[in-house]
Every structure is written in structure tokens, then in C-alpha cells.
Amino acid sequence: MSIRTDLAVEAREMYQKSNKGDVPGVYIKEYNEGECKITDVEILNEEGEKNLGKPKGKYITIDMPEFVFYDKDTMIVVSEVLGSVLSGMVSLEKSMTALVVGLGNWNVTPDALGPKVISQIMITRHLKQLIPDEIDENIRPVCGMSPGVLGITGIETSEIIKSIVKKIKPNLVICVDALASRKASRVNRTIQIGNTGISPGSGVGNKRMEISERTIGIPVIAVGVPTVVDAATLANDTIDLAIDQMIHQSNTGGEFYNMLKAINKDEKQKLINEILNPYLGDLMVTPKDVDLIIDNTSKIIANGINLALQPAMKLDEISKYLN
């Protein structure tokens, strides 16, 4: 069964679980930055692409500390870690223009991350053009947009971005989007940064046209946070935990527990999907405090992008340019 996840680190974990070993064609590096765990997954060749089901390139995952959204100081620390990671992927001269795109539907809270980030990005392209003498020469020209979704505009998001790129000719696009996770523990706790572009909606089974260097002609960096998990996957994991616990606690070794051990987990997930689909459809689950979480996650992401695009400035200086 295909398990929905946008995270390369989860695709790697699933491969290792199924094949009992490292992933051929994939380089892995894990380290810590303060309270944040960082996992660098680099897909090196076609074999790695096949094994993880993702394009060749780099995927960096930042695992945020618990309760990060309730502590302003920790939010700033995570923003600085994100800014540092992004800086290593942003290859621009200070005169080059960056376009930040907030993907998603602003009317649906778990999908509103991208538009909320755009409202907090330091936008400077117009200032560099209109009042160049009053703007520090170290400030990079940055523009931003939130193109909405196909259901609202009737236009493919990639077509909108491609048209704008052709008109204003930026040197880099940074796309921000909500993702889907395979594990509930990673929902709203993980940031993924990749240099291979993005296919909006792929994690929730609504894959749209790809946004990448191949399709729009300039480098694309994707920044995303998983905000939902598939209900069928969640149910499957819950049943697995219950079965494992029953087997662990049982000393009888009877026929019933031997039957539990013999259950094929792929067949079980297929059965769960068949049972849930008529009643729930493609249900996605998100935490009850998602409004607060999305608001604060958007601040973390926006601050990280601002720091990466304006390396000559600190957060308190950047805040003066925001509404």
C-alpha cells in the first residue's frame, strides 16, 4: 500500500524497515543544532530516486523541540537554525532577486501556511526600485506572492509562477507549502527544505503540476511543514501498537497470539482503507490547536527565510520593514 508522506526522511525510514539496511544511492547525515535535530538526506543517483520515490537532490529535515510554539525564545532559535540551513542552499549575489511563493488555500487552516508566511516576508524589490538611495545596498531585492489554488483561481499554480518568473526574471524561487506526514509525531514538528522543487497537493492525493527548475527555468527551493496525517495510516499505526503491546504482554504463546504475529501488515492497511473509504473518504487529521500552531509556524518559517535572504541583517532589524 502506498503510504502518503512528503518527507524524504520518512521515505528513508520506511525503506529501512522493509529492507533491513541502508538505502543504496542515498547519503544520510544526522547532527544537532542546539535543541534541533537535523537530518540531511541526499539522493545521489537513479537508484536512490527509485528507492525513495523522490527526485535526485538534497532534502534537509529539521526536527523542532517540543512546545516550540509556546515559547518565543525557542521559536527564534528554530528560525535561526532554519535561516542557517537555507543560507547554505541560497546561492545569490546581493543584487540578485528572490521570489518567495506561499502555496496553499488561505481559507483552510492546515493549508494556509504558505499564504501566512508571505504576509511576514521582508519585501524589498519595490523599495530598491523606487527609493534606491534610502535602502542599504546590502539589502537583497525580494518579492512575494500567494497564487491560491486551482479550485479558487481555475489556473494551475505552476502556470502562474512560470508567468511571473518570465515577467520579473528573479534568480531564485522559494516555495512554502503545507505537507503531509506518515507519522502523527511529526505533524507540525518538522521542517523540510529541498532543492528539487515541489508538486503541490501530492501528500494528500491531489498532485498538481510540478514547480521545479525543470519546469520554470530557475532554481527552486521548497520549504514545507507537515500539518496533516492520513486517517487510515493513523488507524493502521494504532492497531499495530495495540497488537505489539498485546504480544509483548502475553506469556501464553497461544494460538490467538500466534495469529496476531502472522498478520500481514500490508494486507491489514489495505483492509483499513477499504473499510474507512466508504464512510470517511480521504480523511486527513490535524491537531485541535492547529490555528495557533499555523500562526506560529508561519512566523518561524518567515523569519528563517528573511534571515537567509538578508544575511546582512538581524531579526530585530528585519522586523522594522514588516507591517
UniProtKB/TrEMBL annotation:
InterPro entries: Pept_HybD-like_dom_sf (IPR023430), Peptidase_A25 (IPR005080). Residues 1-6 form a propeptide. Keywords: Hydrolase, Protease, Zymogen. Autoproteolytically processed. The inactive tetrameric zymogen termed p46 autoprocesses to a smaller form termed p41, which is active only during spore germination. Its EC number is 3.4.24.78. The keyword Protease applies. GO terms for biological process: proteolysis; spore germination. SUPFAM superfamilies: HybD-like (SSF53163). Signal peptide: none annotated. It catalyses: Endopeptidase action with P4 Glu or Asp, P1 preferably Glu > Asp, P1' hydrophobic and P2' Ala. GO terms for molecular function: metalloendopeptidase activity. Homotetramer. Initiates the rapid degradation of small, acid-soluble proteins during spore germination. Belongs to the peptidase A25 family. This is Germination protease. It comes from Clostridium grantii DSM 8605.
